[in-house]
Amino acid sequence: MSRPTLPAPRADLAPTPSQTVGPFYGYALPFAKGGDIAPAGHPDTITLHGHVLDGAGQPVPDAIVEVWQPAPDGSRTGAPGSLRRDPVTGAVIGRDGLVFTGFGRVSTDADGHFTVRTLPPGGVPYLSLAVFARGLLHHLYTRAYLHDADGGAADALLAQLPPERRATLVTAPDGAGVHRFDIRLQGDGQHEETVFLDFG
Predict the structure, then answer these.
(1) 3-class secondary structure for the chain?
(2) Cβ count near 29 (within 10 Å)
(3) In Å, what is the CA distance from 95 to each residue of 10, 23, 89, 177, 178?
(4) pLDDT band at 161 (very low <50, low <70, confident <90, very high)
(5) Which of 85, 115, 79 is nearest to 98 (CA)?
(6) Could you report how far apart the first and last alpha carbons of the chain are, in Å?
(7) Could you tell me if 117 and 177 are in contact, meaning their C-beta atoms sit under 8 angstroms apart?
(8) Beta-bridge mates of residue 129
(9) Rounded Cα–Cα distance for residues 100 and 96 (Å)
(10) pLDDT tens across 57-94, in order?
(11) CA distance 67 to 183
C-alpha cells in the first residue's frame, strides 16, 4: 500500500499566525482539588483568591492559574501527588489531602474568579503564578506578594518598580489569612496591567 503524497505548499498563500492558547486546554489541564495545596485542616492555611480580567475589565471565565511555591520551611522539592491517577480508570483524582506539593492549578469560574488554599511560602514573600487563557500566544508569569509577608519591602523586583506598578503585585487583605489578588491581562485606563515577568 503506497502513501499518498501531499501537494507542495502554495506560494500565493500567506502563513497563518500561531495558534493561541486554548480553549482546548480545559480538557487536560485542570485536575481535581487543584487549588487545595495545603493539607486539609492545616492551621496555617492561607487563601489566595481573585479575578482574571481582560483589557475591558471583564472577567475571563476560562482561564487557568497555576501556583508554584516553596514549602513553609523553604524547601522546593515538593511532593508527588498533584496529578495522582486512579489505577483502574486512569482518571485524574488529584491530591490525597495529606501532603503539601508546592503546586496548584485552578480554572476560573464563570465570573473569572479563582481560589487557592495553601501554606505561607518559606524564604520568599510571594507565590509564583502562571496564567493560561484564550487569546494568549504564551502563558504569562507573575508573582503575588503577600501583603503581610516578611521581606516584601526588601524584595529586589518590587524595589525597582514605580509605586503604581508595584501595587499590581501585592495582595490586598480580605479577612484573616485571606489575600485578594486580581490579575489584569491589560490595563483598562483606570487600573494598571499586572506586572508580568519575562524568563525568556
Answers:
(1) CCCCCCCCCCCCCCCCCCCCCCCHHHHCCCCCCCCECCCCCCCCCEEEEEEEECCCCCECCCCEEEEECCCCCCCCCCCCCCCCECCCCCCECCCCCCCCCCEEEEECCCCCEEEEEECCCCCCCEEEEEEECCCCCCCEEEEEECCCCCCCCCCHHHHCCCHHHHHHHECEECCCCEEECCEECCCCCCCCCCCCECCC
(2) 14
(3) 50, 24, 16, 22, 22
(4) very high
(5) 79
(6) 46
(7) no
(8) 67, 142
(9) 10
(10) 999 998 999 999 999 999 987 766 666 677 888 776 76
(11) 13
Whether pTM exceeds 0.90? no
CA distances (Å), origin 179, targets 64, 88, 172, 184: 18, 38, 6, 16
Residues 143-165, buried b or exposed e (16+ Cβ, 10 A)? bbbbeebeebeebeebeeeeeee
Residues in the chain: 200
Q: And the C-alpha cell for 127?
A: 507565590
C-alpha cell at 141: 508569569
